[in-house]
């Protein structure tokens, strides 16, 4: 019997082997037949198969072994060679392998809007000698941009924006003589702007490149004067939202073709070049949120200027010039806190296209007379916090006028004395028909048809009008889009714009929905065509809209995305019904096996996947202190992440104020795609903050990691960052006593991390923006994304990649890659110097540590540091008791050798002694109690700053 069973098993096993051999034989025969009639070069087919081996969610047409002959969607061929791959917006997943280099005739590669395409760019990409268009915007690529990119001598369009690229801008890009469009914005690129030096190339060699888009990165250093020359034909110079320092070189005026200039939200300083006025073709000039000094420049000759923003700089007091009235093309004037004084001329408001005027926080005075001939396009005049003592407004005016905090208001109840701006609802495409009730997943179009639209966010980086501008701009934009799609013969019925608003980076955002003509959904070809038209700038709006970028949503026809499909050869020859069924069953089984195998491998290599599942199950013991929130919970408590709840923004995304169901107020940090805060930092901060608890550390309430979101939920700390208080931007002026108490609180938080946490923790990014102040101005250390656990080691240090912020970074750590707790001490010493000077570490190109060391004279009062000190400290009545000891202690912290610096425990004791010297009790947290007994102020009852407490004298 056993022999019989064994024989039967062998026969079954043998039949399975025969079946497998038969299937493989059929596959071989069919593939040979396919190749015999194929129109695709065999080498190109092999390269494409290898390239897409690990790709998922490919178009359904990618079957058979003949991409050119079978007309695979997204593939274009010339003479049997693959010349174009365009797969935007279809949800492709995977990585880009070096096999790409074998497609020797490839001219266009567009993989835009596929957020799950990750990993680094292969260095072999430089071998694509015929490539003219490399468009990878809105993907998930990371790592450095390879230097080999400079070998793509035929490249015309290079769009790598909205990814996660790090490292420096490759100087080799300067070799791309045919480049027209260069967009590296919205990444994490660092280092200086590369220019040529005789032996290496640089961006100054790109004489025919029209678009320089570098915004929303981490570029640092000064702007090289050699970057600009008279031979350039640049029209857009966008370097906003970086860390650039120094001044704008006067050579910029040599580039007479410039139309849009953005250097806002950097750390630039010095006076603006006097010849800026010579750029007569400029439409948009945005220089806000820097530290420029000197007078506001005369821009009389910039007759084409539409949009001017110089807000939040340190200009000298400047009388409102008559040159403003000469700029008859102005639509938007943003000059908040720019030192303007005097009376606004009535002629200014008669500029024909004027829409928005924001000049709050200046010293404008006298009577505000808007006149009867004011621009009928006016939407907003915001002059709050000035010295205006009278106003004449035309009867029946329909614009928003804001004059709060001016003398004329006093106790008046005029509508314009309210500081609330009512600009109406954001623009939405009007509908002139009755919208039907659509099925789930469908949307009603402007023509009242139910369909699945192609959607995304349309972002204008330098428009000539403001978000509150005339609706005509948006209706014209819709018509322009429709006309362009029609001329390209795309199957579009209508387009809709909605949610128009300016974001935290100064860009004009709007939601775009494109509705299909005919069927209720776009087919794959329609989606790929729309994505390509918008990603490679085929659609060109008129000049007043400025440069744009479109970030598309994945298009799914209202259905869930398909699972990963194999890109190998699927047998398509007609062999016979039964054999075909058998073959398909075997192929399907093999595909499922490969899918499970790939998913398992992906899960093993992607620690965040398994980590996320454990979090949702609350399975990690050290996560007990953090609560897991669902996306819907956080969406609800922030009113769907409304802009009204937006309380801040940074490179990681935005911060929202929310109220939980138990009425607890929280701050929710929501990372955006391509943000500075990566998965590793997100996990790190959760794990570290869940294990530490101290009154001087920001408390983590919980987190969310679902639906592709990464959100951290903190306790709400109401007074913002120490940087904001030192600068006075949040209306707070810190006296010396409060600065001492804040320093002590922050030092105690760090002392806990270094010496009391188990295991100890090194923060690695101590700076004034990472020290938050609560309602009583008690300090709380925040942002643990770069922190490291520091267990007992014999070496006394950890070797790790250098992370931190320039100006605060320990030079010893920077040189050796060895981080210790003394690295935090160095950074804290820089913060202590900020307490004295209220200056950022690198101010006007000078390093505050070096400035204090070279200026200090211990034989003089206040160590001769008055020239560097915050004027607020010198003008308050509070005595600067202990300031010299405070400076000595800060200098000990910034010693070059870590062994010469104090520990945080020693630092806390020294600061406590200074606090006692000032007559305060360092062991009591309350501001009112801490002030009790203080002898530095005499006379009347003393109001405790920023509280309702008083000391009775």
How are the secondary structure elements laid out?
Blueprint: H1 2-37, H2 42-51, E1 75-78, E2 81-86, E3 94-95, E4 108-110, E5 117-119, E6 133-135, E7 140-144, E8 157-159, E9 164-166, E10 181-183, E11 190-191, E12 211-213, E13 218-222, E14 236-238, E15 243-246, E16 260-262, E17 267-271, E18 284-286, E19 291-293, E20 307-309, E21 318-319, H3 323-326, E22 332-334, E23 340-342, E24 356-358, E25 363-369, E26 380-382, E27 387-392, E28 400-402, E29 443-444, E30 450-451, E31 454-460, H4 472-487, E32 492-502, E33 508-516, H5 524-535, E34 548-552, H6 577-605, H7 607-616, E35 627-628, H8 631-637, E36 646-650, E37 653-659, E38 665-671, H9 679-689, E39 700-704, E40 711-715, H10 722-727, H11 736-756, E41 761-762, E42 771-773, E43 779-781, E44 788-789, E45 798-799, H12 811-816, E46 818-819, H13 821-837, E47 842-843, E48 846-847, H14 848-855, H15 871-875, H16 883-893, H17 904-917, H18 927-931, E49 942-943, E50 950-951
Parallel strand pairs: 2-4, 3-5, 4-6, 5-7, 6-8, 7-9, 8-10, 10-12, 11-13, 12-14, 13-15, 14-16, 15-17, 16-18, 17-19, 18-20, 20-22, 21-23, 22-24, 23-25, 24-26, 25-27, 26-28, 35-39
Antiparallel strand pairs: 1-2, 29-30, 31-33, 31-34, 32-33, 36-37, 37-38, 38-40, 39-40, 41-44, 42-43, 45-46, 47-48, 49-50
